[in-house]
Amino acid sequence: MGCGASAPVETIKDARVTEAERGSTRAEVARDNLTIAEAESVKTKAGNETFIASCLKAREEHADDAKVMTECCTRLQAHNRRLKEYVAIYDAQTVKEAADGGFLGLGRNDRKLIACLCTRTKSQLARTRRQYRELYDKDMRAEVKGETGSGGYGRMMFFGMAAPDEYVAACASDGL
User: Fold this and answer.
1) How far out from the chain centre does Cα 156 lie?
2) What pLDDT sits at residue 50?
């Protein structure tokens, strides 16, 4: 072979990455946990018993049995916690993607930022901020403010994500 020519690179045809080698993200684990917990409701057809329907049926048939009602409430609370966790993880990922410009990295996506930050309650935003910290080891408010600037839009997003005590402290320091 002459100068600059190289031998052809052989491709590895059946190289597969196993699930154990790939690992799982927190969002995948939360989604899988939710899927596993609610597998029966996904498999059932309309009219068959789902998780929520089974709770309603138990309430209807065993309203006088405190033990059954306690079990229904406990399971509904666990289901609700898993859903909240999944939404917080998904919102944190959406904020990161929207602030970083998505797949191509071409500027921020204001529609996504508004959709996942301006439509949530303070407690939902607090969960999202915690998840963002866990996933990316960064402060979500600071990241969004850095992307949105110090103008009216940036201040709105920054204050919108603030806990009540943070909002009051920031307003006091800004002389508002």
Assistant:
1) 22
2) 76
